[in-house]
Design a protein that fits this description.
The chain is α/β, with parallel strands linked by helices and about 325 residues long. The chain has helices spanning about 15-25, 40-45, 65-75, 85-90, 95-115, 150-170, 190-205, 225-235, 255-265, 295-300, 305-325; strands at about 5-10, 30-35, 55, 75-80, 120-125, 175-180, 180, 210, 220, 220-225, 240-245, 250, 275. Bound molecules: NADP nicotinamide-adenine-dinucleotide phosphate and guanosine-5'-diphosphate-alpha-D-mannose.
Length: about 325
């Protein structure tokens, strides 16, 4: 019999990459979508798997829909990727962020405990939980949390409720503490995609400037397609555990900008950048850099795409996309 997986957040960035990864391994994949008049399958289309996923309806803020789904599907694995995942918006929409990101995982865990206790559970935890904390310049599984946004705070709850259900009820529940990962289907609000989309628009004369916030922030950026493998590997181990996943190297937003302009063959990048205070955050996370030693050693996982390759891949994809728009 085929293994089954339920992925929440199937229409986002990671959902399609994970679905593709699991389908290749012969899983039957169910994707949770909210009720929409017109759901947006663009990211799944990009990876060519829209028709290979079976869609089920529900909402992370609606406990009964999640209880029913787990009771009916009893999947082998649940990957909880759904979230209000944009840090910037979490300052203005703190309650919604908390309901989706904190209560959502609680509802799922409770449903698993009640109706399908052998289901393995993956929680999409995040390096944002570390905030200002580090251990000798890096963050690892032992680094304390000091979240700097309602998003980070909501994810700390989700992290601990996952640990608690593992300890209290023996569920196979894992936290993947993933550092920033990007791709050509990254949401346009996130800085990497905002930059590559902006650079492509400048290249083809559809924009004259790129407005950004804090260029000094540093992130440990990897490729989403690599990171979904780590999620899968966590659920294939003998025992459930929590893992930091990143590259171990970080770069500033400014470095990303410079490189993106370079790959688009646009000189003098500084003349296109406008620093706009509306894109600065009330409290910032200045520096994230993973120590992924545990994931390397225990999962045997490694990132395959370098920072430079990632920027190039994203710039090339946006140049191609925007060229079509400019020509139409
Ligand atoms: P994303 O592109 O923002 O996708 C999030 C998905 O969650 C969207 O498809 C969205 O659905 C869904 N969602 C939001 N609210 C929902 C609700 N109430 N009910 C059901 N679905 C809901 O995020 P991502 O980059 O793929 O990240 C996946 C997960 O990893 C998130 O939990 C994020 O917080 C976490 N994470 C991401 C990174 C990263 O760098 N990408 C790093 C660490 C952790 P709609 O399409 O319907 O809006
Ligand atoms: N979005 C955005 N827009 N960020 C900007 C801008 C801008 O115009 N200018 C500078 N930045 C800075 C932000 O202040 C932040 O320091 C950095 O660029 C990265 O911002 P985002 O790309 O929005 O990502 P994030 O690091 O806040 O959050 C992402 O990564 C987390 C993992 O560390 C999201 O994917 C989260 O969901 C994820 O948990």
């Amino acid at each position: 019999m085929k293994k089954t997986a339920l992925i929440t957040g199937i229409l986002g960035q990671d959902g399609p990459y994970l679905a593709k990864f699991l389908i290749r391994r012969d899983y039957k994949v169910y994707g949770l979508i909210r009720r929409y008049s017109n759901p947006n399958f663009e990211n799944l289309d990009y990876l060519g798997i829209t028709s290979k996923v079976e869609y089920v309806e529900g909402d992370m803020t609606d406990e009964s829909s999640l209880l029913n789904l787990i009771r009916l599907l009893r999947p082998n694995e649940v990957y909880n990727l759904a979230a209000q995942s944009f840090v910037g918006s979490s300052f203005e929409q703190a309650k919604l962020t908390t309901e989706v990101n904190s209560l959502g995982p609680l509802y799922l865990l409770n449903a698993i405990k009640l109706f399908s206790p052998t289901t393995k559970f993956y929680q999409a935890s995040t390096s944002e939980m570390f905030g200002l904390q580090h251990t000798n310049g890096y963050q690892d599984e032992k680094t304390p949390f000091h979240p700097r946004s309602p998003y980070g705070v909501s994810k700390v709850y989700a992290y601990w409720i996952t640990v608690n259900f593992r300890e209290a009820y023996g569920l196979f529940a894992c936290n993947g503490i993933l550092f920033n990962h990007e791709s050509p289907i990254r949401g346009l609000q996130f800085v990497t995609r905002k930059i590559t989309d902006g650079v492509a628009k400048i290249k083809y004369g559809l924009a004259k400037e790129l407005r950004l916030g804090n260029l000094d922030a540093k992130r440990d950026w990897g490729f989403a397609g690599d990171y979904v493998e780590a999620m899968y590997l966590m659920l294939q181990q003998e025992n459930p555990d929590d893992y930091v996943v990143g590259t171990g190297e970080n770069h500033s937003v400014e470095e990303f900008v410079q490189l993106a302009f370079k790959y688009a063959d646009i000189k003098d990048w500084k003349k296109y950048i406008v620093i706009d205070p509306q894109f600065k955050r009330p409290s910032e996370v200045p520096n994230l850099k993973a120590n992924p030693k545990k994931a390397f050693e225990k999962l045997g996982w490694r990132p395959k795409i370098s920072f430079q390759e990632l920027v190039k891949m994203m710039v090339e994809a946006d140049l191609k996309r925007i060229k079509k728009t400019a020509e139409s």
